[in-house]
Amino acid sequence: MPDGTKAILEIKTTNYNAKDHWWKDGRETVPAYYEPQGRHYMAVMDIDHVFFCCLYGNTEDETIIRKIHRDMAYEECPVRFG
Q1: Measured between alpha carbons, how far is 41 from 50 in angstroms, rounded to an integer?
Q2: Distance CA 8, CA 80 (A)
Q3: Per-residue pLDDT tens for 11-32?
């Protein structure tokens, strides 16, 4: 990244009806079933961010992009990473 941090891009696809999983209470989010995957990548690869790009239709206008930041407190929880 331009600021010196490291990131990866995770590409997803979904159908039009499931695109609502990318919002929670009217706010942009990463679905609960994808977030742990991204956080695992950050922990294992020692990176700072994960970008999720999800195509839910057939055009570039039907794309959702989200970013999550590394959370060391999340990684320290033994229930999540054993």
Answers
A1: 8
A2: 21
A3: 999 988 888 899 999 999 999 9
Q: Domain ranges in the chain?
A: 7-81
Spatial CB neighbours of 67, under 8 Å, sequence gap ≥ 6? 7, 49, 50, 51, 52
**Per-residue pLDDT tens over the stretch 40-61:** 999 999 999 999 999 998 888 8
Tell me how far CA of residue 7 lies from CA of 22, 24, 44, 45, 81, in angstroms: 20, 24, 13, 10, 20
Strand bridging mode 49-55 / 7-13: parallel
Q: Beta strands of 1-82 (E only): which ranges? A: 7-13, 23-24, 27-28, 49-55, 63-69
